[in-house]
Amino acid sequence: MIENKNLVLIGMPGCGKSTIGHLLSEKLDLPFCDIDQYIENKEKKKIKDIFKDGEAIFRKIEKQAVKEVSLKTPMVISTGGGVIKDEDNINQLKKNGIIIFINRPLELIISDINTEDRPLLKEQSGALEKLYEQRYHLYKMYCDYEIKNISSLEGVVEGILELVGK
């Protein structure tokens, strides 16, 4: 890993970004920031409540949060699943970060995801499948590295550490 770079985790909702991010930050003794949590703390509202004002409002807030968080280095950052919808977000994160796509098969995400706090998934049946179709190629296109999350979380963390040379 290049020193003073952020490790930025991208991927579908429910792929394990936040959990893996926490484990990585502990292993590397780096701060951890979950951008969704950062937004909730800053806005003093849950993501699902911000979404009630419209996705466009949320994406604007998310863009500002990405800008603020990405300036801090080095740290482990877990992004929201839709961060890749705005290329400016990716460009900002890449300035001083290594982008890692946590690739978890859709059927595994579906089997263990809780949609209560995930507004885009709760709205309609088949929403996760639609998001997957829309976003998968973007995750692949924007990542520096890709790792499959099909085994133990510890195995995924070790795999990431190998990928980035730590």
Automatic annotation (TrEMBL):
- What molecular function does GO assign, one term? magnesium ion binding
Q: Which residues bind Mg(2+)?
A: S18
Which cofactors does this protein require? Mg(2+)
Identify the GO cellular component terms for this protein. cytosol
Q: What is its main location?
A: cytoplasm
- Quote the function comment for this protein: Catalyzes the specific phosphorylation of the 3-hydroxyl group of shikimic acid using ATP as a cosubstrate.
Query: What is the designated name of this protein?
Result: Shikimate kinase
Q: Which species is this UniProt entry from? A: Clostridium grantii DSM 8605
